[in-house]
Amino acid sequence: MAINLFTDKGVPLERQRFTWKELVGKPISKLDDDAFTRVRVILMNGIETDALRVSQVLLRMQREARVPLAQLTRVENHQATAINWMVSADHSPLETTIAYEQVAIEVTASVAQHEPDAYMAQAYRYALLEDFDHLYRYAALMDRLEGKDANSITQGYTDIVPGRPTVVHHRSPENDLLECYARDAALATKLHAITLVGGEYQTHDYYIHYGPWFADPVARQLYAEIASVESQHIVHYGSMLNPDESPLEKLLLQQANEVWNYQACASQETNPRVKALWEQFLEYELGHVQCALQLFKDIERRDPAEVLGDGKLPRGIEFRSHRDFLRQALAEVPMRKDGTRFVDEDDEAVASLQYRNHMNSQGSPSQGVSSAYQWMPGTELAARPATIA
User: Fold this and answer.
1) pTM of the prediction?
2) Less Cβ crowding at N or C end of the chain, within 10 Å?
3) Please, which residues bridge with residue 336 across strands?
């Protein structure tokens, strides 16, 4: 279904209501649902919580918009609850972590291939190789702690092999920054960046919350290490967003981004019950866009077409395996950063080398956890010799 942000009104904000049973519905199945159903659930929770974050910040900055922002915040919170509560309780924190990394890999791979700006596309490929390696390190941890094959979560869609080693991801803060997109950049460029920064925020917050839950010292250190890298990714993607955009311009783009993502989820969902939720929330978000449009016109006295163009949405994220693209990206010449520039490995900023050497001076959790690990189907159970009674 082709959507136009100006003419498709959706459900008015005042009619968006929930009961507790609607907020806490039946979760998806770890075993029976397709892995990409969980990918969509995790992604959309990140999108919703980021929209919630933006509206909460704007509430502190926009006196004239306080009432509609409070109303938006309430609904965004309930949507995030309904989505996040779909992850079933039989997912261990480590299994959910594996799923988070699959989300980062497959969503970023899709965005990297669709991004019209060559510099931004390179930035997505750059961070993608780091998420790829995080999946490998956490798969090694799963083998160490639970004796499980990470493929039971990824379902064979995503390769479990090293990427750019996590030990070299650590950069001095100024070298995480990127050049921001232009105010007149393509809508696709803006939506891609908003989507990825929301996803990275969620991943960082999950890791920094659950890392202390582990008793194993290597696990605790690995979560701390990768949470730090995810914080770098928040800066990496967040610096893509143009800081000259007005607060209500950002709200308008955030709401358009939710519509764009829900449409992609609804069009590709294989679970009928979850598909119905995506369709419902798509209609809700179209109502949110109408609210943001009105605020933009009333308070800023500007034409929303300056931000949204003709109101038509660009090509959405493809929820599928991007194995061939990922293997091609892994085979490229290693990239490093110097300021906002991508450079050859030998030209990396000296400040990052000094920072990294200090952080790793007492050992590297990501290297240690995988020192004797190589992924194979079935892990320890498959490798154990047969015994004769």
Assistant:
1) 0.94
2) C
3) 343
